[in-house]
Amino acid sequence: METVVSGIRPTGNLHLGNYFGAVKNFLKMQNDFNCYFFIADYHSLTTHPAPEDLHGNVRQVLAEYLAAGLDPEKATIYIQSDLPEVAELTLLLNMNAYLGELERTTSFKEKARKQPENVNAGLLTYPVLMAADIIIHHANKVPVGKDQEQNLEMTRKFANRFNRIYDTEYFPIPQPFNFGEALVKIPGLDGTGKMGKSEGNGIYLIDDPKVIRKKVMKAVTDSGPTEPNTPVTEPINNLFTLMSVVSKPETLEFFKEEYSKCSIRYGDLKKQLAEDIIIFTEPMREKIKAIAADDAYLRKVAEIGREKAHASASKTLKEVRELIGFRSF
C-alpha cells in the first residue's frame, strides 16, 4: 500500500482553502492509502506564536481535522513536534541544501516581501523541513495545494540528492496527488491571492452564520462589466471560484450569465454565496464544538498518532544515520 503524507500549520482555524486544498483529499485517501496527516507546529514557529497560543491552536486544529472527517483508526494523525526525528532529519538534509536554491523559492520571496521585518532562517529553510516531514515516512504521494507545488518539487530534489550522494535508492520520490483532479487553489475575499490565515481574507469552518455573511458582503468586487461578454476580472472570478465549490452548478451558471449580460448584481451574488457557505459549513461547525469539548478523546487521538508516527520516523532516522556513516562505538 502506498504512503501519503501531508499537514497543515496550526496558525489559526481551518478555512475553506485548507478544506478544499487539502482536507477534502485526505478524506478520500485515508480509505485507500497508508496515510500520515500531521499538525505542523514546527512550521508555525516562523510567525512567532505566543507560547500560550501554540498549544491551543494545535488543539483546535486537531479538533477541526477530526470534525472534518479524518479517522484516527484509518490514518495516522499526529503532531509534528511529537517527532523529534523530524528536526534531526531536517538538520541532515540542510547539509546538502544550498542558499541560492532556497532563496529562489516563490514562497520565501513572497514571505520576505510581505514581512521584511521577520525574514528568519525558518522561512528560508521551510522547504527542507517540509521535505523531512514527507520523506521521513517514505511518502509516495503528497496531496498539496497549487501554492505548494514548488515546495514539493524541492522535496523531490532533496530526496533525489540524498539518494545520489549516498549511492542508494532509499527514499522514494514523492508525487503530487489529487485523485486525478486539478490542484485546488481557493482564493481569498480581498480580491487577490489565495485564502490564507495570515492574510485575514478567509472563511473558517468554525465561523458562525453572522460572521460568514459579514465577511462575504465585504468581499472585494469591481465597478461591474460595462459591455456584454467582458472578461471576468480577478475579484469577481475569485467569488465565482468560491461559488464553484460550495454552490449548485446551476447557481454558478446563473451568475456567470448575469455577468456576461452586464446585469449582475453583486449584492445578490454575495448573499447567495454566503448562504451556500453557511449550509456547507454548518455540520462541521457543530462537530468542531463537540469534539473540542472532549479533552479525553483529543488526548487519546494524539497519543495513538504519536506512537504510530514514531515507529515509522525512528526506523527512518536509524537507517539514514547508517547510510550517512554514523556508527556506534
TrEMBL record:
Residues involved in ATP binding: 9-11, 17-18, 145-147, 186, 194-198
GO CC terms in record: cytosol
GO annotation, biological process: tryptophanyl-tRNA aminoacylation
Subcellular compartments: Cytoplasm
Gene Ontology molecular function: any one: tryptophan-tRNA ligase activity
Domain of life: Bacteria
'KMSKS' region (motif): residue ranges: 194-198
Record InterPro entries: aa-tRNA-synth_I_CS (IPR001412), aa-tRNA-synth_Ic (IPR002305), Rossmann-like_a/b/a_fold (IPR014729), Trp-tRNA-ligase (IPR002306), Trp-tRNA-ligase_bac-type (IPR024109), Trp-tRNA_synthetase (IPR050203)
Keyword Protein biosynthesis: yes
Protein name: Tryptophan--tRNA ligase
Gene: trpS
